[in-house]
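Field log, afternoon session.

UNIT: design team B
ACTIVITY: writing a sequence onto a fixed backbone
BACKBONE:
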């Protein structure tokens, strides 16, 4: 059976059969170790009580007395050695060695029940054979007799056996049916989950899963639904990402191709040639930046990426970043001020450099003429705080809510140089360091970026 239900049925049957076998062996052991000797002693006492009554009361009609005992539930065999008579139920096997008879006539007690050679209690306790009896001697009218007796199991216990057998049979059938129904109820939601998984494998993320349970399977179904929703969202983001990447690559490539065609014109003026070459250079740099940022995003998205956390001077890194972009600040005629404490931070300096580069170039790019940029680095009890503030063009609340989305640009015309990946990278790097980033902005009032980095031990 390949199905879980089939395996469950087979295992249930094997468990039931195995339990019955083990129970039978345990019962058989108990019978041989405990019950067999007690049963033999009990019947020896009964037989001795019978012969004591015969020898003391001396009933006038011995056969009638023994017949009465037979009628009330005993199988009796009486012999003098020469003649024999049976009373009560019939024995299936009347074989009895002559030596046993002679020993009993000689005064010994025959323990046939105790010494019955069969191995199981079914064939031992219920064996309707003459050798499976108790033998005791007695005298009646100066004649020696041997009395062999055993309870008539068929007569004494037939009703009890029927009731017990019926009870066991009904319990077995009902237990089996209950287990099969339970197994079907248990496996049904798993079957639904399997079908939904097949649909998911074919990118059908809208597959409904109607499993409402409070147990582990219900929790699995809930987790599956959450996973499906996230996969659907990831699929949407992936397709949107591919579309954006295609657009961002296609646009500069078309520009490069177009201006290269223009440069082939032999009658082109030198001034125009320089202008077209500058545009091609800018578009090439844009493609290079986009490629680097895509590679960085891919690296950040990998859960196995290991950050290099080494202590270094964070204030020196920020100052070096300011010096690197000093020419852009002067070219844009901006005023920059900073206040930094000497702080040693344990983190990935290479990744964090991308953060400072992006945030400072944004403050320069989206500032206004003769604008201001203020940078502060402070150390608190549990965190290191970085503030980068400008008084540039700012953003609306709607634009602010989308700034961390990949390929989103506040200027929808895409006229400014940029990829729309910078702030997405910034946020991911900060979160990899266990920090947070907040951004406040208003139109024509500027933007303030606040970063909290936890102190790493």
């Amino acid at each position: 059976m390949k199905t879980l239900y089939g395996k469950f049925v087979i295992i249930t049957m094997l468990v039931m059969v195995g339990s019955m076998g083990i129970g039978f062996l345990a019962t058989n052991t108990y019978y041989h170790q405990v019950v067999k000797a007690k049963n033999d002693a009990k019947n020896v006492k009964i037989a001795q009580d019978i012969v004591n009554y015969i020898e003391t009361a001396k009933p006038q009609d011995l056969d009638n007395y023994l017949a009465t005992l037979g009628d009330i539930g005993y199988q009796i065999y009486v012999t003098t050695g020469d003649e024999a008579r049976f009373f009560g139920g019939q024995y299936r096997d009347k074989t009895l060695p002559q030596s046993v008879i002679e020993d009993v006539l000689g005064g010994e007690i025959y323990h046939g029940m105790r010494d019955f050679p069969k191995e199981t209690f079914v064939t031992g306790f219920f064996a309707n054979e003459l050798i499976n009896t108790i033998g005791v001697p007695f005298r009646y009218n100066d004649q020696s007799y041997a009395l062999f007796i055993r309870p008539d199991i068929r007569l004494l216990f037939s009703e009890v056996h029927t009731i017990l057998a019926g009870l066991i049979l009904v319990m077995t059938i009902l237990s089996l049916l209950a287990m099969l129904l339970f197994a079907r109820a248990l496996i049904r939601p798993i079957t639904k989950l399997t079908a939904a998984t097949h649909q998911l494998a074919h990118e059908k993320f809208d597959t409904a899963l109607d499993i409402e349970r409070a147990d582990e399977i219900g929790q699995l179904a809930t987790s599956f639904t959450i996973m499906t929703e996230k996969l659907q969202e990831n699929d949407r983001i992936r397709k949107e990402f591919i579309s954006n990447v295609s657009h961002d690559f296609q646009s500069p490539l078309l520009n490069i191709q177009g201006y290269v065609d223009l440069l082939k014109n032999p009658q082109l003026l030198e001034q125009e040639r320089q202008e077209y070459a500058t545009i091609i250079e800018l578009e090439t740099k844009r493609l290079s930046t986009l490629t680097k940022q895509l590679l960085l995003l891919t690296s950040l998205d990998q859960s196995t990426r290991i950050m290099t956390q080494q202590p270094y001077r964070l204030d020196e890194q920020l100052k070096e970043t300011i010096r690197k972009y000093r020419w852009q600040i002067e070219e844009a005629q901006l005023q920059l001020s900073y206040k930094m404490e000497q702080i040693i931070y344990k983190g990935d300096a290479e990744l964090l450099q991308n953060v400072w580069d992006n945030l400072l170039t944004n403050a320069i790019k989206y500032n206004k003429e003769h604008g201001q940029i203020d940078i502060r680095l402070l150390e608190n009890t549990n965190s290191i705080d970085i503030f980068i503030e400008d008084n540039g063009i700012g953003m609306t609340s709607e634009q602010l809510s989308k700034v961390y989305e990949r390929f989103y640009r506040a200027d929808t015309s895409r006229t400014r140089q940029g990829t729309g990946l910078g702030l997405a990278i910034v946020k991911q790097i900060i979160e990899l360091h266990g920090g947070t980033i907040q951004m406040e902005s208003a139109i024509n009032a500027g933007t303030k970026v606040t970063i909290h980095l936890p102190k790493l031990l």
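LOG NOTE: The first strand starts at residue 74 and ends at 79.
NEXT ACTIVITY: expression trials, pending approval
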